[in-house]
Write a structure and sequence with these properties.
By secondary structure, the chain is an alpha/beta fold. The protein contains 13 helices and 15 strands. The protein is 34% helix and 22% strand. A hairpin with a 2-residue loop joins strand 1 (5-21) and strand 2 (24-38). The structure holds 2-succinylbenzoate and magnesium ion (MG).
């Protein structure tokens, strides 16, 4: 599979409803899309880096620059047998996992199309239907949050995750539990607490949460292990896990009982499989995290979620929760049982709406192999 050209595109897409976490509010996504041209086949990927360096040190502009200056030139002109071989071509660049993942995932889509197979089968997936939950941000009022939960439960979602921060935690969780004593409920702190908050965090135990996600520093594993020993509630790590060795460290130290895998955060589908396998060997269930993706990134999340150890509902939910109109056809839909059916179409199975993408594109650059340029 010869990589002839890589196209970067920036699109601006307003969210239907703002998304607020302990580190800030997003109203509009700056979406970075990648197209890999491989001998007449187009593979698509999405870079999940945010609008600023707040969830991770990567952000949309750093990813654009890194792909444009360093990563795409390492790939164009190369002939690779499999998408999984692209990671080693880019390993000279340290970090920048979200930038790398966008490229690698585009190549998985291209490889799958070349082989007339769905990406999920190429990954070794076994599920034909994946379980879906929702992640609900911090709202302007408790009533607004309860209303949103009600809507999502009525739509069939299997698990509710709410964002928490100091001043938006115990009281909110108490209200949710009072109204819905039995639902699968978890919370995500996005690194907002510190070890002296231990007495406060112990009070979360009374809400019988499925998990508390990333309570402490974004780059910490050790203190999460100390904290996990003190809590009944399972800790789930998100921000701390960048590759399979991080997962191994976290598991061996007892820093979590669950891991959230985000394809972008770990640098692509190949490493996501490695994290999955590490967790599976150690009997740690995983679920697929989301980064407010368009249908293009969402489609890769769906494919990944078909692997057997994705035993908990993920943050992979319907296009219409985020976008007035998604940029793929069909849009991602969730059944009334809170599942997404996985199809057998080649590639990710979700076709980019090229006219709409072109219309929304604010910036575009194409990197061609030198041989193709002359
Ligand atoms: O921590 O999971 C997170 C969105 C942006 C940054 C971090 C996170 C999130 C989400 C979004 O929770 C989940 C979704 O895509 O619906
Ligand atoms: Mg999280």
């Amino acid at each position: 599979m010869k990589i002839e050209a890589i196209t970067l595109r920036e699109l601006h897409m307003p969210l239907k409803h703002f998304f607020e976490t302990s580190f800030g509010r997003t109203e509009e996504r700056r979406v970075l899309l990648i197209t890999a041209d491989c001998e007449g086949i187009e593979g698509w990927g999405e870079c999940v880096a945010g609008e600023g360096p707040f969830f991770s040190d990567e952000w949309m502009e750093s990813a654009w620059a890194t792909i444009h200056e360093f990563l795409a030139p390492l790939l164009v002109g190369q002939n690779i047998e499999q998408a999984r071989n692209s990671a080693s071509l880019m390993s000279h660049v340290r970090g920048h996992n979200m930038a790398k993942a966008a490229l690698e995932n585009a190549l998985w889509d291209a490889e799958a199309k070349a082989k007339a197979q769905p990406v999920w089968k190429l990954l070794g997936g076994t599920r034909t239907e994946i379980d879906c939950g929702v992640s609900i941000g911090i709202q302007d009022s408790h009533e607004q949050l309860l209303g949103k939960i009600e809507t999502e439960l009525a739509a069939g979602y299997q698990r509710i995750k709410v964002k928490v921060k100091r001043g938006w935690d115990l009281e909110v969780l108490a209200k949710i539990r009072k109204r819905w004593p039995k639902i699968l409920l978890s919370c995500d702190a996005n690194s907002t607490y510190r070890p002296p908050d231990l007495p406060h965090l112990k009070r979360f135990d009374e809400f019988r949460l499925l998990m508390i996600e990333q309570p402490l520093w974004h780059d910490d594993i050790f203190h999460h292990a100390r904290l996990q020993r003190e809590l009944e509630t399972a800790i789930c790590l998100d921000e701390s896990i960048h590759h399979a060795r991080d997962a191994e460290t976290a598991i061996e130290l007892g820093a979590c009982r669950i891991i959230n895998i985000k394809v972008g955060r770990v640098g692509g589908l190949t490493e996501a499989i490695a994290v999955h396998d590490m967790c599976e060997r150690n009997k740690i269930p995983v679920w697929c995290g989301g980064m407010l993706e368009t249908g293009i990134g969402r489609a890769h999340n769906i494919a990944l979620s078909t692997l057997p150890n994705f035993r908990l509902p993920g943050d992979v939910s319907a296009s219409q929760r985020y976008w007035a109109e998604d940029i793929v056809d069909p849009e991602i839909e969730v059944t009334s049982r809170g599942t997404i059916a996985v199809g057998n179409s080649p590639g990710t199975g979700f076709v980019p709406k090229k006219d709409l993408i072109e219309k929304l594109t604010l910036r575009k650059e194409i990197i061609r192999s030198r041989a193709a340029a002359v």
